[in-house]
Structure formats: structure tokens, C-alpha cells
Specification:
Layout lengths: L34 E12 L2 E12 L3 E5 L6 H7 L10 E9 L2 E2 L7 H7 E4 L10 H11 L6 H11 L3 H4 L12 H13 L5 E5 L7 H14 L4 E5 L3 H7 L2 E9 L5 E10 H6 L4 H7 L5
Parallel strand pairs: 2-10, 3-8, 3-9, 6-7, 7-8
Antiparallel strand pairs: 1-2, 1-4, 4-5, 9-10
Length: 290
């Protein structure tokens, strides 16, 4: 993995990932090896309409962080800030401070293509390319200039995504021949093939049956020690099962009657679900609203 996030003409070095040794924590009371994302007063507007405002939190490395909250509160909008996917939305504007490994993600020198290589994304609906299973996985490495050892890269990515044993005899079949759950794991493998540090997952199980959902959750647990994972989910039970940290986002009515998302609480998942600090969090997780 190259160290430069910025374009070659004005390259800025990315700090190395800290050691996992005890005492290197960026979060008090955990052994998390530092912070990947720092958000300070982050807001997103679509045109003049605010979608999310005032989000401040630090996302730790090699942990699973869940974003929960009612529909329309801005969870997906917020997660798309983390790899600049909102750049692709007409009228979207991000303000506040948002850094990745200490680098301002919205510095004009930062290359968004390199950002999205390091910070991969898996979407709500599986979106395999209209290619073979093999070519889906090999696509990213080929784009990045890799021509050697593609067989090894494909096998490793599929193995890491717990899919190799199911598809090793049909690597040259269409990806659309796979089941929905297999297609979603294929998309995760495609993300892993370019060696990211972070995997963003926007409702990755909402279109899947319970068995496929369980496999994706098991996969996240297997990947958590090697990758930083941020997941958006409507399923509070899923957040409680898989995540280490949880952010609860809800909507408030602002001037003019529009609704805007705000971060209510961000804490260790166990604490947030058993002893939340804000009564709005307790109301949401107990089903009194949302």
C-alpha cells in the first residue's frame, strides 16, 4: 500500500498504523491501537438543506463502530463522508473537521480515488459487476496496476470473505449466479482485494435472509482484528451483537420545520445499550420512539 493519500505532485505522508502493543491506545480503557477518523463539528448540507449537523466523535482502529438511529436521521449520509462518496452527490457539501490518520480528507490536495481505495465501501444491496466471480475480485488490483499473482490475490480475498470454499469451482461463472448472501460476501471480498484499512458497510444485511445475515456478522467478527469497520444498521440487535462502539443519531426539527440529524451519544456498545447517558438513547433502544 502506498503511503501517499495526496496526488503525487504534493504528496503528504500518511502516518503508519500504530502497534497493537499495550499502552498505545487512543481510547482510554481499551487496547484499541489509535484513532482512524476524527470528526469535529461535521455537518452535511444538500444545497441549502442541512442533513446532519454537529457530529463530533473519534472512530478507533481495528474495531467495529455501529451507527444507529431512526430512518432519515443521516446515518448513510454520515458514513459516506468517511470516504468522500458525498462528492458524487450533486449539491452535497461537507463542513467541519474530518481527518483520516491526521490527514484532512477534504484538503484539496487529497486524491479522492486513493481515499476510496484505502477506505472501501459495501452497500445495502449487493452490487457485483456483470463479470465472473474471478474478474470481480481481480478488477481492483488490475485497475491499480497489478498483473502478477492475481490468482493468489483472488483466493486470499475470497478466503478472507469466507467464500472460497463455496465458489472455488465456479470462479469463471457469472457473479449473478450466486445467492444474495454470496453476492454480498463477494462484494466484501472485492473490497478486501485492494488491501484497504477501513471497510464501510451501509446496511449490508438489510436485503438478506437471517442465515445470510448471520454469515455476514460472523465475517465481520473475523475481520475486526485486521480492519477498521464502520457499519450503518437499523437492527439494534445486530449493533449490540457485532460492534465495539455505537453512535446513536436522531433527528431534530429546526427552523422552517425541516429535520436534521444530530449525534446524541457515542460510547462503548455495552455501555450505550445498558446504561445510556442520554434519555433519548434509552427511549430509542427500548422502543419508545423511532
Amino acid at each position: 500500500m502506498t503511503d501517499a493519500l495526496t496526488r503525487p505532485a504534493e504528496a503528504t505522508r500518511i502516518p503508519a498504523i500504530p502497534s497493537r502493543a499495550a499502552g498505545t491506545s487512543g481510547f482510554e480503557g481499551t487496547d484499541a491501537p489509535g484513532i482512524v477518523f476524527e470528526l469535529e463539528d461535521v455537518a452535511v448540507h444538500y444545497g441549502s438543506t442541512p442533513a446532519v449537523e454537529g457530529v463530533t466523535m473519534d472512530i478507533p482502529a481495528r474495531r467495529i463502530t455501529a451507527l444507529i438511529g431512526p430512518s432519515g436521521c443521516g446515518k448513510s449520509t454520515l458514513i459516506r463522508c468517511l470516504n468522500r462518496m458525498n462528492d458524487l452527490v450533486d449539491g452535497a457539501r461537507v463542513s467541519g473537521r474530518l481527518t483520516y490518520r491526521g490527514i484532512d480528507l477534504h484538503d484539496p490536495r487529497v486524491d479522492p480515488v486513493e481515499v476510496r481505495r484505502r477506505i472501501g465501501m459495501v452497500f445495502q444491496k449487493p452490487n457485483p459487476f456483470p463479470k465472473s466471480v474471478y474478474d470481480n475480485i481481480a478488477f481492483g488490483p488490475r485497475v491499480n496496476g497489478t498483473r502478477r499473482n492475481l490468482d493468489d490475490i483472488v483466493e486470499k480475498a475470497l478466503t478472507d470473505a469466507a467464500l472460497w470454499d463455496e465458489v472455488k469451482d465456479k470462479l469463471h461463472a457469472s457473479a449473478f449466479a450466486l445467492s444474495g448472501g454470496q453476492q454480498q460476501r463477494l462484494c466484501i471480498a472485492r473490497c478486501l482485494a485492494v488491501d484497504p484499512e477501513v471497510i464501510l458497510m451501509d446496511e449490508p444485511c438489510s436485503a438478506l435472509d437471517p442465515i445470510a445475515t448471520s454469515r455476514i456478522e460472523d465475517l465481520m467478527a473475523d475481520l475486526r482484528d485486521r480492519y477498521t469497520i464502520v457499519i450503518v444498521t437499523h437492527n439494534m440487535q445486530q449493533a449490540a451483537r457485532v460492534s465495539d462502539y455505537t453512535a446513536f443519531i436522531t433527528t431534530d426539527v429546526v427552523d422552517g420545520g425541516s429535520r436534521v440529524g444530530h449525534l446524541v451519544e457515542f460510547d462503548r456498545t455495552e455501555k450505550l445499550f445498558t446504561n445510556p447517558s442520554d434519555p433519548r438513547t434509552e427511549g430509542y433502544i427500548t422502543g419508545r420512539f423511532g
